[in-house]
Design goal:
Two copies of one chain form a homodimer. By secondary structure, chain A is mainly alpha-helical. Chain A is 60% helix and 6% strand. Chain A folds into two domains: 4-80, Glutaredoxin; 88-233, Glutathione S-transferase Yfyf (Class Pi), Chain A, domain 2 (Up-down Bundle), CATH 1.20.1050.10. Chain A has a four-stranded mixed sheet with strand order 2-1-3-4, covered by helices on one side. In chain A, α1 (13-24) packs antiparallel against α11 (202-215), α3 (70-80) packs antiparallel against α4 (88-108) and α8 crosses α10. The longest helix of chain A is centred in the middle third of the chain and has 21 residues, at 88-108. Chain A starts with a strand and ends with a helix. Chains A and B meet through β4, α3, α4 and α7 of A and β4, α3, α4 and α7 of B.
Chain lengths: 235, 235
C-alpha cells in the first residue's frame, strides 16, 4: 500500500506541487481515477474524509490525516516531512511563495478558465503581470543569496518547500508551454536555473517521467489550456 | 508608534482578517492611505519591503519583518502571536480553513470583479456552491465539537486563528450583506453563532466600530459590490 493517496485530476497543475514534495521526500502515493475523485467531491460534507470543495485532497495513511487545499496540503507535508524552515519568518515566507505560485496559476488560467483569453488581454498580461510575478520570485531568491548556479530560495542549506514550490511552478509551466521560457529566463534567471537543478534530481526527474507518460503535454487542461496555446502560437 | 503597519484598501474584505487577529491579540496598527499603498505596490520589486504584487502587506516593526499574501500574513501573525494550534494536523487545518475563506471571497466577488454577476449565475451560486461552502465550515466545526453556544472550530481551549478567520468571513459578509444571513444560519448555524460570539468580544466589537466608522457599509468595494447588491436586492 502506498504511503499517501492523492486525489487530483490527471494533470500537472496544482497536483504537481504535491507530487514534487512526495517524490523529493521519497514517499509513495497512488492516484485514484476520475470517477473516484468526482465521487468523493460529490458526497455529503459529513461523509467526506474531511469537508472539502475540490481537489487536491491528500490522505496520509500512516497518520490517518486527510487534507485539502494545495497550500494547506503543502504545509502539512512540509511540516511532517521535515522540509519546512525552522523559524516563523521563513515559514511564513514559504506560505507567501506558495500563495504567489497559486496566484500565478490562477492568473494564467483566468481563474480556472472562467473566461477565455483574448489577444489584447493576453498581451497585456504577458508584458506586465506575468513578468512582474517572475521578478517577484527572482527578487525573493536574490534577497536570500540565491545564485545562478547554487543556493536556495530562502538561503537554507538544503532545498526546502519554498524551493520545491518555486521549481514546480516555473519548470512545469515552461516545460509544458515552452513559448514562455524566454520570459521566465529574462525576468527570473536564477529562479529558472534553480528550477532546472531541483527538477533534475533523480527523484524529481523520475516523477516527471511518470507524469509525462500519464499526462502527455497537458498543463492545466480544458478549454483554457487551448486558449493559452492559441495565444502562444499566435505570438 | 504602532506595533504593525497594515497596507490595505479602506475596506473590510481581506484586510478585516488581519485586523481581527491584531485586535484580538491586543496589538496596535496604523493603516497608510491609498497613495502610500499604490506607491509601495508600484515600486521596483527590489525596493519593496518584500517583493509582492498586491495588498495586504503587513510590517511588524518590533521584528523588522514584512509579509504579504493574506494566508501568509495570518500564518506569520498566528505563529508569532501564539494563536496557532501546536500540532501539525490542526495547524494545516487552520491553513485549509483560511484557504477556504479566501476561496469564498474570490467566488462571491467573481475573483475581484473580473466579471459582473448575472441573475442566472448568481441564483446557481447562491443555491449550490455558497451553501456548500457554509456546510463545509459547519461540518469542520462539528467534527471538532463545536456547539451552538460554545466551543471552537478545531476543539481548542481558547479561540485560535481558525476561529478568527471563520468568524471574520461569515460575520463580516452577513453584517455587510444582511440578505445572506438566512443562508448562512441555515447551512452553518453553529458557525454563525461562533462568528457572533467571537466578533462580540470587547476587542473585536471595538475594531468593528472603528472599521464601520471608516468604511461605512462597504464590504469588497468596487463595481462588483454594486453587482452583488443588485443580485441581493432583486431576490
Amino acid at each position: 500500500m502506498a504511503d499517501y493517496t492523492l486525489y487530483y485530476w490527471p494533470l500537472p497543475f496544482r497536483g504537481q506541487f504535491i507530487r514534487a514534495v512526495l517524490a523529493h521526500t521519497g514517499k509513495t502515493w497512488d492516484e485514484p481515477d476520475i470517477d473516484a475523485i468526482t465521487g468523493v467531491m460529490g458526497r455529503d460534507v459529513d461523509d467526506q474524509p474531511l469537508p472539502f470543495m475540490a481537489p487536491p485532497l491528500v490522505v496520509d495513511h500512516a497518520n490517518d490525516v486527510a487534507m485539502a487545499q494545495m497550500p494547506a496540503v503543502l504545509a502539512y507535508l512540509g511540516t511532517s516531512l521535515g522540509i519546512m524552515p525552522d523559524d516563523p519568518e521563513r515559514t511564513a515566507l514559504t506560505h507567501k511563495i506558495i500563495a504567489d505560485a497559486n496566484d500565478v496559476l490562477d492568473e494564467v488560467t483566468r481563474f480556472g478558465g472562467r473566461s477565455m483569453w483574448i489577444r489584447e488581454e493576453w498581451e497585456s498580461f504577458a508584458s506586465d503581470r506575468l513578468p512582474r510575478w517572475a521578478q517577484i520570485f527572482e527578487a525573493t531568491g536574490r534577497a536570500h543569496g540565491l545564485q545562478a548556479d547554487s543556493g536556495h530560495m530562502l538561503g537554507t542549506d538544503a532545498p526546502g518547500l519554498a524551493d520545491l514550490a518555486t521549481a514546480t511552478l516555473w519548470f512545469t509551466m515552461t516545460a509544458k508551454l515552452p513559448e514562455l521560457t524566454d520570459l521566465v529566463r529574462e525576468n527570473a534567471p536564477r529562479v529558472a536555473a534553480l528550477a532546472h537543478r531541483i527538477m533534475s534530481t533523480e527523484a524529481l526527474a523520475q516523477m516527471r517521467d511518470d507524469t509525462d507518460t500519464r499526462f502527455g503535454n497537458a498543463w492545466c487542461g480544458g478549454q483554457i489550456e487551448a486558449s493559452i496555446r492559441e495565444m502562444l502560437n499566435g505570438d
